[in-house]
Amino acid sequence: MSATKTDTRQLDVPQVVTVVPRELITDINATRVDRAFDYVPGLTQTNNFGGLGTFAYAIRGVTTAEIFRNGLAANRGGPPPLIDTQNIERIEVLKGAGGALFGRSDPGGLVNIVTKQPTTIRFVEMGGLWGSFEQFRGTIDSGGALNDEKTLLYRFNFAGGSQNSYRDFVGDDRLFIAPVLSWQITPDTKLTVEAAITRNNIVVDRGVVAVNKQLGFVPISRFLGEPGQVSRQSDAVLQVRLDHRFDADWQMRLATQFNTGTLNGESAEGRGLLSDNRTVIRDRNFRDYSYDSVIGQAELVGRFRTGEVGHILLLGFDREDFDNRQLYLRSNFNTFPYAIDIYNPRYGQPLPPLTRASNTLESVTDTGFYAQDLIDLAPQWKALAGVRFDLFERSFKQRIGGNSAEQTRAAASPRAGLVYQPIPELALYANVSTSFRPNIGTDAGLGAGSRAFEPETGLGYEVGAKVELYGGALLLTGAAFRIDRENVLTADPSNSGFQITAGGVRSQGFEFTAAGQLTPELRIIGGYTFTDAFITKDNVLPVGAPLLNIPEHSGTMLAVYEVQSGPLRGLGIGGGVRAAGERAGDSSNSGFKLPTYVVADALGYYKYESFRFGLNVENVFDTTYYVGSVSQFRVDTGSPRRITGSLLVRF
After folding, report:
1. Interatomic CA distance for residues 455 and 587, integer angstroms
2. Closest-CA residue to 467 (of 8, 11, 7, 9)
3. Which among 195, 233, 226 is positioned nearest to 53, based on CA atoms?
4. What span, in angstroms and rounded, lies between the C-alpha atoms of 466 and 240?
5. pTM of the model
6. CA-based end-to-end distance of the chain
7. Spatial separation of the C-alpha atoms in residues 469 and 467, rounded to whole Å
8. Would you say 533 and 61 are in contact if contact means Cβ atoms under 8 Å apart?
9. Does pLDDT of 493 surpass 70?
């Protein structure tokens, strides 16, 4: 489990983890993780970076992009393509700070993706998906033993396809391959080698604009970039893991990960709206990014007792090294407006010259040591204590102009929690945890005078309750939380266009979640979250100003009913609702708001022997809604009604 990195029951942990199982991913035909996140309570989209990468999301009002794969960081050094779901077994969403185990992160929570692993049973599953906007996708999932002793196992996943969009001139095509090989060297030692390769061609799309802070004047299909401009992404990951069991109580895990990727291509992106309220000024952009990262990790887990007190001890060490190279060329929109009429766009204008250039090299090393003890104090009482120490070293160089900075920081991230179980099915808990996250970039100093930003720090408190019903088939949770962050980047009042670390923000609220089986036929996942996220200190914005993209009220619920016996056995029907309240649409406290939305989804499927036929309708009532924004000039739209059909055949 992500909350402890040990095999521990949810009720024994003073923290909430929402699990998105493979079954739900298949139910809703989610091909990317952003769609799988739609039914995670308390998780909201904030920015999809024009479709270029795994989007930034907010947990408990804290925006983050932290995603891990099998416990190792999946997005260090660069913007990886949107993560494909084809090889995902489950998604674990950790609520609250994870810095005591995972290191630099945000205090609202993080996501850990657990991938599909080899099986001893040989099988092949082939799939096809067809849908609205010319979507087509083919998949393969296969696995089994490669020798008679069943000590050498494999798993192979493939996905390939393309789709256009409800957005004019926008589309993408993708190729994804993920092989896994495991070798049971001895009964107590297993070696696993796993890879994932992604190739993606995509059109950068910054969404629509608001006119006089109002949405709806521009149809959600209106594309304000340039047709035919495509960005090409590649990403390759290799993980090697060695698991060894010394005896029934002690085990060791060694892991390493290599990741490399590139992004290059052109785009035209909006920067502002002229006073006529119909002309968007744009700049021309060219990106040539590349990144490499190496992560090594060693963990030891042991169970022992000191008198009447039981312990599950975790000791760990990890080290991350990554380089991020970014060549970013832009035109000057003040000199060459590259303007487009939002009501009557004229594409194919002469390209403005690329006169603004940035060529940066960032190198980061992070070394961490961590320890955690899950303590069984008594039959009804359990405690969790942990701490992590990080040494963070970073160099940043702007190769045009010579601006550079060096930074070395040490940080400790402790956490503690207590669980009380008055009855076996009920757990009451409380925790306190800290976090730190280095701020990327430098202040307004020039050359040798530049200074790296101080790291952002966080402190979170949480109290809650968990209930397991129907023998553990259904988990209900309720939690109240408060998170404070300091050293948040904010505008420098003495130097426009630069930032300083002088901000403070707070996020507080409560949430209720439900996940699991209500009956053998009915499974659900969903919940409600109230979040009050606002500024507590800033140089420009007033105290109390709301945070960008964070709704006070949000909720989701998905229910699926599957017939278990009789002539209709294997028939499943389901429906879901996703809702978010009004939220700030920019970070400048201008009064621009994204409106409330409620969106309904429906699904049905039929399983017969080795076949599964599925039909999904996303946004049944064709509701117009907006999922997130960066500013009035970059607002991401939600999909209109989308219909997809799917077929899975297993041999």
Report:
1. 20
2. 11
3. 233
4. 35
5. 0.92
6. 31
7. 6
8. yes
9. no
